[in-house]
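Students often ask why inverse folding is considered easier than folding. One informal answer: many sequences map to the same fold, so there is more than one right answer. In these notes we will look at a single instance of the problem. The structure comes first.
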């Protein structure tokens, strides 16, 4: 065969097609009969766009052959024989523009386990007249007819003869119904059920009423039927109609009458009161005790969801994992077989189906997601395609396409044949069809292992799953495709990207903020190798050799050795790398090149040469505003293939060039979402948004189209990957299904035979392409190639010979040594236990044998004695029987003789009575003959009299007819004249009505145009709201992280606050010490003042004496000499006193220096307090700016801004008063100048912000005014239009009234004496009837309510509501504070500054209180932590009290310093006054000396 293949490959071109091989998943759409049992161990279920057939005994999966392009399954059913399947399909484009419904009838293949060639099994296709979806189907008992049910709003029930594609009858219910069945014993009786509806319908092919379908009366009373919630119904035992209601009741009907009502809730309580669940409740009660059971609430009652029939009764399913099996006999007596619960008791049974032999039950169930799950799991995907993909889908397409699943769907089987054993717990109840389950939600990544037959996938359900696929020889074996492993990646984070080691024993997963590496072993021993924390990781990839790991972090790429935990190189975004976030990394096949792609707006693809020393960039492509996803690289041609979002095209890109080729989709629904490149095979496979896969030739040529296309999924394809041998293609979708298809490459041979590419040839092409091996052309090279082929042939034969005895890499597992040792120790323990049990069982058996032998001997003796007693009893009974038989014979003989005598007497009596009756009958016959003769005579007389009367009546009737004809001619002439006149009046009225209709149509057209514009705007708003919702969800996640950080910061702030409280206590102690020192200084100052009192009196006396001497100097020159001596004495005394005063001055200067130092220290403290006040004011202004309504529009950045403000003013926590007083006032001046400049800058920013707020308010007011003007103009125009219509209608009514009055007058004049004319039913009533105003739509208009008035009322209510909401959310207004300085009493500048600072601080505090802001609650309001608000408020109140105490202490110190300054100034003044006197005295003394 290999030789034939080589001959064919040199002449013909290969053909490629995809064949369905396997599927992991369930179609996530709630359709009826989504699971159907076809045989003893075979059932059908939906997956993607296909119907899969699962054979449980063979453990194989095949697919039903049918056309799936642009088709989605909406309903399924099977015939009673199991040979036919009817499928309801939605056909048409995905955008809903060309939508239709059809029903396909298919035959079930005989060999369900064969999956080689899938043939189209479609027998007939039925096309309903309406485009509504088919939601339920049902075959009749003979399989010749089919009943279908369409969706709302019509809910049409149709009766088909499917073999001739003929619609026999249909009826529109226009009631929400969801289920239809056919009575198995009566093909013409249909049962239709819904939420509050359950009726029987009969089909009669010969009836003309209701087109053959007639509805029977309700099975329930009407009030009860409307109040009920019928969830499902079925036909059991071919005669009983069983209906299930949501409240837990099963109603059984026979021939339209209720015969049984089964209370399922009571049966559940009865069954679970003695089962394993009751034992569990007893164990819980024993563990918790009576006190622990007080708070335990009972589970809610079970809510029924589905019911299905089986051979002996019916099966019921509900929520909380409930499954109930009931038996029923022909008298409708119901017996419960058992009550079962699915593990976890969270599943809701959706569909139940039993096989024909009743051996197993197939269950389709689902579990509701958690509140955080799928809606919160819509985070940003690693490839950046999720948000863009969802944003580009229109509302029409979202309505036409099935929605992604919001539940966890699963398939289980239940052993119906062993239900009694399952009820006792001896048999496993629920067995999953897929061992490790399937994905639920969007499949984010699928990656293969290139040295092992395994494929890894991850999805938004936070799970990682491994799937095995077979070789070409293993396809015929049972279970060729098996799930190997299922792990939970994280408890709260989704896996965005995935990379698998080439050996298949290690996987790297990208989470929200880390890269997690897993060792893949059995599920019991699988563990995490390490977690690497990164900022915004996007992509991850292993090299083909497995020695390198590349991972992206934001716009950086790290190259890591994962085995040695060493960072080899970092491709930084700052060093010429990516500007935007990197979403994917990729190694080339030869590991010489590392490629990376970034998201919009940069949209770049870079390639890094790993072989060069500097690892320089050797590939570059930039496309602004583009996001590339799913990147592939061709090593030989140096080309990159990538999908672009949101455009949805595939680009072929070269180095430093624009895209070489672009594969554009035909529409948005055919946009490409993923691709897979097999350059060695010359294939490019691309997945589309509608769930199909297209295959292109590679290298791609301009103008070429795809080779083939196959529709796989019902949702958009999100991930694709080829197996290591390129034989299987794995695709994942947004619905969570993973489908495996075989890539078949065939070629036509010489005789027309189709040859398949061998697996060895595929492996050879892949390996040669990876290592760059090309075809050889020279003669020597050809000889080398022949030798290589011979060596290859020997290698294949050797591998095939040893493959049966050796283990491949697929058969191996990497198990930790500790786990293996534990397993071996457990095995040894079990062996020891087994040996001990053997010895114990042998000893027990011997003892039991001895006991049994002894019991047998005693039983034999007992039996012998019992036998003898029984023989005696038998003899006595035999004698009694003989005597009784003799007595019985004698009694029988006596009874026979008595019977013969009585019979003879009765025979004689009977003969006498018969003779008498015969004589009576003969007399009666004679009388009857006489009566007949008399009747004949009377009859002839009556006939003659009647003939005469008829002649008279005929003559009278002819005369009356002639009179009637003359009267009729007169009336006809009158009617003709009246008819002509009436036709003329109708013609005029019809002309007027046509004009009015034209006006109404024009008005309605305008209204429809306005409504269409409003609908388009509403659609745009809806799309924008979806985008904002996605953004808000991401922001909520970020806010949760920030909330955790805020809690940590709050703990840190608590610690800092405690430290600050300790510091305040220390400051208080220091202030107390300073107060004590100030008191001591005050006492010293008082003492000094008392000492200076006698100096003041001496100065006063001396001053008056000097003045008296000056006055008496001129006239008393004689006394001068005498006075000089006194003056000298006074001088000496003064000098002595003056020197003493100088000593006191020196002491006072020391004290004044000490007081000045204290004053300087006080000034510094005041400066620090002023700076602290300014910082707090600045912080309040910045917080006010953050919380202002004009800046709270971007509220997502509010916590970050508040955090920046708190970090900026972090120094306030470190403030403490200085212990050393400052010696230099220049530093104070500089600090004051800096503070002044900073204060001026803050005031400038505040004024600028106020100006911006004012301008924004003015613009907002202007916009609102323009909107109000436009609204008023539109309302005015509409009001004018309404007034014009009312005027036109008024004129029309007046004109028609005048014409009608003229016609009536004319008719009255013509009729004259014939009487009044009766009014016609079509003529208007012009008399005393009240004319009501009618709108153009036909609705009467109220006199006090017009559309304008209603709109005004609605607008006023909306305006009032907006004002109320604006007032609630708006901050208090800003109060303009006066900047004029406070008048100071004292002339001391330091004191004035201190008073001004204190006044401004108090004004600031009053301003904050007027604004309603509390500084203590600022952190709590920013972080929104209600639990810490009270504590922070209390701490802030304590801080305010401490500040108030410190402020009072500072005020007291300032007053004391002021008093000291006044005393110092007074002393300086006295010294200045005493200085000139001392100089004069000194001068006079010197003069006398000379």
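Output (designed amino acids):
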């Amino acid at each position: 065969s290999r030789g034939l293949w080589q001959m064919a490959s040199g002449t013909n071109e290969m053909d490629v097609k995809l064949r369905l091989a396997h599927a992991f998943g369930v179609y996530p759409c709630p359709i009826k009969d989504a699971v159907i049992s076809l045989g003893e161990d075979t059932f059908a279920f939906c997956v993607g766009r296909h119907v899969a057939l699962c054979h449980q005994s063979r453990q194989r999966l095949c697919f039903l052959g049918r056309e799936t392009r642009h088709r989605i399954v909406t309903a399924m059913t099977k015939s009673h024989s199991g040979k036919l399947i009817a499928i309801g399909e939605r056909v048409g484009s995905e955008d809903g523009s060309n939508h239709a419904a059809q029903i396909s009838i298919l035959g079930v293949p005989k060999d369900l386990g064969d999956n080689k060639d899938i043939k189209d099994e479609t027998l007939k296709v039925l096309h309903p007249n309406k485009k509504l979806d088919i939601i339920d189907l049902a075959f009749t008992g003979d399989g010749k007819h089919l009943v279908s049910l369409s969706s709302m709003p019509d809910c049409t029930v149709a009766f088909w003869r499917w073999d001739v594609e003929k619609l026999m009858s249909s009826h529109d219910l226009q009631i929400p119904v969801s289920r239809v069945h056919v009575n198995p014993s009566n093909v013409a009786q249909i049962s239709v059920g819904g939420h509050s509806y359950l009726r029987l319908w009969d089909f009669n092919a010969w009836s003309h009423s209701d087109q053959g379908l007639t509805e029977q009366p309700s099975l329930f009373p009407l009030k009860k039927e409307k109040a009920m919630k019928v969830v499902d119904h079925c036909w059991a035992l071919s005669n009983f109609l069983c209906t299930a209601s949501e409240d837990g009741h099963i109603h059984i009907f026979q021939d339209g009458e209720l015969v049984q009502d089964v209370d399922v809730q009571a049966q559940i309580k009865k069954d679970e009161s003695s089962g394993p669940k009751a034992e569990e409740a007893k164990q819980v009660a024993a563990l918790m005790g009576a006190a622990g059971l007080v708070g335990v609430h009972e589970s809610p009652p079970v809510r029924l969801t589905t019911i299905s029939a089986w051979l002996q009764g019916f099966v019921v399913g509900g929520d909380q994992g409930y499954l109930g099996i009931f038996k029923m006999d022909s008298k409708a007596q119901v017996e419960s077989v058992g009550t079962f619960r699915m593990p976890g008791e969270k599943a809701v049974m959706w569909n139940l189906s039993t096989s024909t032999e009743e051996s197993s039950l197939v269950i389709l169930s689902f579990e509701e997601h958690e509140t955080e799950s799928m809606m919160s799991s819509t985070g940003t995907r690693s490839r950046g395609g999720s948000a863009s993909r969802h944003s580009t889908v229109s509302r029409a397409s979202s309505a036409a396409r099935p929605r992604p699943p919001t539940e966890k769907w699963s398939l289980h089987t239940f052993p119906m044949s062993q239900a009694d054993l399952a009820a006792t717990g001896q048999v496993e109840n629920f067995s999953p069809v897929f061992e490790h389950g399937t994905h639920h939600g969007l499949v984010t990544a699928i990656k293969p292992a290139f040295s092992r037959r395994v494929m890894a996938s991850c999805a938004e359900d936070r799970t990682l799953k491994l799937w095995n696929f077979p070789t070409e020889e293993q396809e015929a074996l049972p279970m060729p495709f098996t799930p190997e492993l299922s792990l939970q990646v994280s408890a709260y984070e989704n896996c965005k990207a995935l990379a698998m080691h080439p050996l298949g024993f290690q996987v790297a997963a990208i989470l929200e903020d880390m890269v997690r590496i897993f060792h893949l072993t059995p599920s019991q021993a699988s563990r995490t190798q390490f977690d690497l924390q990164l900022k915004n990781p996007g992509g991850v990839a292993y090299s083909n050799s497995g020695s390198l790991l590349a991972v992206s972090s934001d716009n950086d790429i790290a190259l890591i050795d994962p085995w040695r935990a060493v960072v080899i190189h970092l491709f930084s975004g700052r060093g010429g790398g990516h500007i935007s976030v990197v979403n994917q990394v990729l190694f080339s096949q030869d590991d010489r090149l590392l490629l990376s792609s970034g998201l919009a707006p940069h949209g770049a693809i870079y390639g890094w040469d790993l072989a060069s020393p500097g690892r320089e960039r050797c590939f570059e492509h930039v496309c602004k505003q583009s996001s590339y996803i799913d990147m592939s690289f061709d090593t030989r041609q140096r080309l990159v293939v990538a999908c672009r979002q949101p455009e949805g095209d595939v680009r072929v890109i070269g180095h430093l060039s624009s895209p070489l080729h672009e594969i554009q989709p035909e529409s948005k629904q055919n946009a490409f979402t993923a691709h897979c490149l097999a350059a060695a095979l010359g294939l490019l496979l691309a997945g589309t948004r509608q769930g199909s896969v297209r295959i292109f030739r590679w290298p791609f040529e301009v103008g070429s189209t795809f080779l083939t296309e196959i529709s796989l999924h019902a949702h958009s394809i999100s991930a694709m990957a080829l197996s290591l041998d390129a034989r299987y293609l794995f695709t994942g979708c947004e619905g969570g299904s993973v489908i495996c298809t075989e890539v078949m490459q065939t070629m036509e041979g010489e005789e027309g035979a189709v040859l398949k590419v061998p697996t060895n040839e595929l492996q050879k092409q892949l390996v040669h392409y990876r290592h760059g091996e090309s075809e050889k052309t020279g003669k020597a090279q050809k000889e080398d190639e022949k030798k290589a082929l011979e060596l290859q042939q020997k290698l294949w034969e050797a591998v095939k010979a040893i493959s049966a005895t050796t283990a491949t890499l697929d058969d191996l597992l990497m198990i930790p040594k500790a786990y293996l040792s534990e397993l071996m120790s457990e095995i040894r323990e079990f062996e020891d236990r087994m040996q001990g049990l053997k010895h114990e069982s042998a000893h027990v058996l011997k003892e039991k044998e001895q006991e049994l032998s002894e019991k047998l001997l005693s039983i034999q003796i007992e039996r012998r004695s019992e036998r003898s007693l029984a023989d005696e009893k038998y003899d006595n009974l035999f004698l009694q029987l003989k005597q009784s038989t003799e007595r019985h014979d004698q009694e029988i003989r006596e009874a026979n003789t008595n019977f013969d005598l009585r019979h003879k007497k009765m025979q004689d009596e009977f003969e006498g009575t018969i003779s008498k009756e015969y004589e009576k009958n003969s007399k009666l016959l004679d009388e009857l003959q006489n009566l007949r003769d008399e009747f004949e005579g009377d009859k002839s007389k009556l006939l003659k009299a009647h003939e005469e009367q008829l002649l008279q009546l005929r003559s009278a009737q002819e005369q009356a007819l002639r009179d009637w004809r003359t009267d009729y001619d007169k009336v006809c002439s009158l009617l003709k004249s009246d008819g002509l006149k009436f036709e003329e009046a109708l013609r005029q009225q019809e002309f007027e009505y046509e004009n009015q209709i034209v006006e109404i149509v024009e008005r309605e057209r305008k209204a429809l145009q306005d409504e269409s514009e409003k609908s388009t705007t509403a659609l745009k708003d809806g799309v924008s709201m979806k985008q904002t919702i996605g953004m808000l969800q991401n922001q909520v996640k970020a806010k949760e992280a920030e909330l955790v950080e805020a809690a940590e910061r709050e703990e840190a702030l608590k610690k800092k606050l405690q430290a600050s409280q300790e510091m305040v206590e220390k400051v208080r102690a220091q202030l107390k010490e300073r107060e004590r020192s100030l008191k001591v200084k005050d006492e010293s100052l008082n003492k000094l003042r008392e000492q200076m009192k006698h100096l003041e009196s001496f100065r006063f006396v001396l001053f008056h004496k000097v003045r008296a001497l000056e006055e008496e100097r001129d006239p008393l020159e004689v006394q001068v000499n005498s006075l000089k001596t006194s003056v000298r004495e006074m001088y000496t005394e003064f000098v002595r006193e003056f020197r003493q005063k100088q000593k006191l001055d020196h002491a006072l200067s020391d004290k004044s220096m000490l007081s000045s130092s204290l004053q300087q220290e006080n000034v510094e403290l005041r400066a620090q307090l002023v700076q602290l006040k300014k910082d707090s004011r600045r912080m309040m202004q910045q917080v006010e700016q953050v919380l202002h309504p004009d800046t709270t529009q971007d509220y997502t950045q509010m916590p970050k801004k508040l955090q920046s403000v708190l970090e900026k003013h972090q120094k306030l926590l470190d403030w403490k008063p200085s212990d050393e007083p400052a010696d230099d006032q220049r530093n104070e001046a500089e600090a004051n100048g800096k503070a002044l400049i900073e204060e001026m800058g803050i005031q400038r920013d505040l004024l600028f912000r106020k100006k911006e707020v004012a301008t924004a308010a003015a613009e907002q007011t202007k916009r609102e005014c323009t909107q109000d003007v436009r609204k008023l103009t539109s309302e005015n125009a509409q009001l004018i239009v309404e007034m014009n219509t009312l005027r036109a209608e008024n004129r029309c009514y007046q004109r028609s009234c005048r014409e009608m009055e003229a016609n009536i007058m004319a008719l009255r004049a013509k009729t004259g004496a014939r009487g009044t004319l009766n009014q016609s039913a079509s003529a208007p009533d012009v008399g005393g009837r009240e004319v009501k105003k009618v709108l153009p739509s036909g609705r009467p208009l109220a006199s006090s309510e017009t559309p304008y008035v209603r709109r005004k009322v609605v607008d006023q209510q909306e305006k009032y509501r907006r004002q109320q909401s604006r007032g609630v959310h708006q901050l208090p207004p800003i109060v303009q504070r006066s900047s004029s300085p406070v008048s100071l009493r004292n002339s001391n500048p330091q004191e004035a500054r201190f008073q001004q600072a204190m006044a401004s601080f108090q004004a600031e505090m009053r301003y904050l209180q007027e604004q309603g802001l509390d500084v203590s609650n600022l952190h709590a309001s920013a972080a929104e932590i209600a639990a810490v608000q009270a504590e922070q408020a209390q701490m802030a109140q304590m801080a305010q009290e401490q500040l108030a105490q410190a402020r009072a202490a500072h005020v007291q110190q300032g007053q004391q310093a002021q008093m000291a300054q006044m005393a110092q100034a007074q002393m300086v003044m006295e010294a200045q006054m005493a200085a000139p006197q001392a100089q004069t005295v000194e001068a006079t003394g010197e003069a006398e000396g000379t």
